[in-house]
Design brief:
- This protein is an alpha/beta fold.
- It folds into 2 domains: 22-64 and 343-440, Aspartate Aminotransferase, domain 1 (Alpha-Beta Complex); 68-341, Type I PLP-dependent aspartate aminotransferase-like (Major domain) (Aspartate Aminotransferase, domain 2).
- The chain has 16 helices and 15 strands.
- It has helices at 22-27, 53-56, 65-77, 89-101, 115-132, 153-158, 162-166, 184-187, 203-211, 237-248, 269-273, 300-308, 326-341, 344-360, 391-402, 424-440, and strands at residues 34-36, 39-41, 47-50, 108-112, 140-144, 175-178, 216-221, 251-255, 279-282, 294-298, 368-374, 377-382, 405-406, 408-410, 413-416.
- The strands form 3 sheets. A 7-stranded mixed beta sheet has the order 4-10-9-8-7-5-6, with helices on both faces. A 4-stranded mixed beta sheet has the order 1-2-3-13. Strands 11-12-15-14 form a 4-stranded antiparallel beta sheet, covered by helices on one side.
- The longest helix has 18 residues, at 115-132.
- The relative contact order is 0.16.
- The structure holds pyridoxal-5'-phosphate.
- Pyridoxal-5'-phosphate is lined by residues 114-116, 119, 148-150, 222, 226-227, 255, 257-258, 283.
Length: 442
């Protein structure tokens, strides 16, 4: 019998890796084999401190016994059952647990398998909502530059990342974008929410004037944009967006895929930032990433219009074979129980001042042109190497990995999002290692 516990040489050819320079990776592989608490371990047994909670998702830390046992128990009881015109109790319980955490009144939950599916689901719900209310002309979707809503055609079209769009021509036709809110000239080295930029939300009024409110279904934004380098919303920005949406009957969708489940020191970004949307997407931290799962929560009125507005039959022609999958539901329930019993958002809140100080201590190192933070998120923006954008940050990423710390880079920005169980000595190690790498790559 094969010894599956032993690291083995890998044939790297077959796996077409996502969002990866495949040729470079396969020539210089970086493997992770095991994970526990705040750390990954390589096949050789080298420990790597996780500064990114995997991909913004293992918020409760790695290898949580409670989650593993819940998955094992459910797998032994029932591996799979459909949720199309059938049900299994654990999916309903998982939805109820999510609804307990979402803002008041956002208590209807649709399950997906990823953030991308959640984005497309949310957009479809928005279109179905207006149609159910007799406003079929509301088909336009407004996103924001530098927004990331995954890789489905809906999320990609509403997303605002050029590189994600230009390889594919079949984008949704009725889409427009708000400007992003990153203004380093005014806001560099801000702690928490920047002072400048609330007025950028007013561009929505211009888009309404241009297209007509009667053509616009929804605006979709991340409360804090993560994938494009940690863009924290300026003070007052989300409030203005909410007010303009309300004025014109436009739905406001938050993509809470990374801001959900304690990342900002509250259950969701909506709570921390004080502005509640009509629809919100989530994934990642929902199951601590132990089993893929996403979800969309909606206001009662959105559910009512679509579900109770129909005389009978299927109300929403949408769903996934694995919506509410038993193993994912078990993982979600166990994860949300850990959030409650260990008060993970509270832990994030408690360490935030120390975290903030540490992130901003990198100011003054060579090529550091901005440091920013909110909740347990941090970012360091670097000036690019002349004629070689992204190279400096990539070199820093590799140097950090080789010296035992995992960070994430996007463009010339290093983004940090550690598990919420991080302690002060981990923060020190993470920031010191990153600082050394920044200095070494000057
Ligand atoms: N939305 C946001 C804000 C994200 O950060 C991500 C992934 O990073 C997604 C959507 C896509 O999620 P997934 O990769 O699970 O499809």
């Amino acid at each position: 019998m094969n010894d599956l516990s032993a690291p083995r040489p890998n044939n790297l050819d077959a796996f077409w890796m996502p969002y990866t320079d495949n040729k470079h990776f396969k020539a210089n592989p970086r493997m992770l084999y095991r994970a526990e608490g705040m750390s990954y371990f390589t096949p050789e047994g080298r420990e790597v401190l996780d500064g990114t909670a995997g991909l913004w998702c293992c918020n409760a830390g790695h290898g949580r016994r409670e989650i593993t046992e819940a998955i094992q128990k459910q797998a032994a009881l029932m591996d799979f059952a459909p949720t199309f015109n059938m049900g299994h109790p654990i999916a309903f319980e998982a939805a109820a647990r999510v609804a307990e955490m979402t803002p008041d009144g956002m208590d209807r939950v649709f399950f997906t398998n990823s953030g991308s599916e959640s984005a497309d689901t949310a957009l479809k719900i928005a279109l179905a909502y207006h149609k159910a209310r007799g406003q079929s002309s509301r088909v336009r979707l407004i996103g924001r530059e530098r927004g990331y809503h995954g890789v489905g055609f809906g999320g990609m079209s509403v997303g605002g990342i050029g590189a994600n769009r230009k390889q594919f021509s079949a984008l949704l036709p009725y889409v427009d974008h708000l400007p992003h809110t990153h203004q380093p000239a005014k806001n560099a080295f801000t702690r928490g929410q920047p002072e400048h930029g609330a007025e950028l939300a007013d561009v929505l009024e211009s888009l309404v004037a241009l297209h007509g409110a009667e053509t616009i279904a929804a605006v979709m934004v991340e409360p804090v944009a993560g994938s494009t380098g940690v863009l924290v919303p300026p003070k007052g920005y989300l409030e203005r967006l909410r007010a303009i949406c309300d004025k014109h009957g436009i739905l406001l969708i938050y993509d809470e895929v990374i801001t959900g489940f304690g990342r900002l020191g509250t259950n969701f970004g909506a709570e921390r930032l004080g502005v509640v949307p009509d629809i919100m997407t989530m994934a990642k931290g929902l199951t601590n990433a132990a089993v893929p799962m996403g979800a969309v929560a909606v206001r009662e009125g959105v559910y009512d219009a679509i579900v109770n507005g129909m005389p009978g039959g299927i109300e929403l022609f949408h769903g996934y074979t694995y919506s509410g999958h038993p193993l994912a539901s078990a993982a979600a329930i166990a994860t949300l129980e850990l959030h409650r019993s260990e008060d993970l958002p509270g832990r994030a809140r408690a360490i935030e001042p120390y975290w903030q100080e540490a992130v901003h201590s990198l100011r003054g190192l060579p090529n550091v042109i901005d440091t920013r933070d909110i909740g347990l998120i941090g970012a360091v923006e670097l000036s690019p190497r002349e004629g070689k954008p992204t190279e400096r940050a990539l070199a820093i990423f590799r140097r950090c990995f080789d010296t035992g710390v995992l960070v994430r880079v996007t463009g010339d920005i290093v983004a940090l999002s550690p598990p919420l169980i991080i302690e002060k000595h981990h923060v020190d190690r993470l920031i010191n290692t990153l600082g050394d790498a920044i200095t070494a790559e000057a």
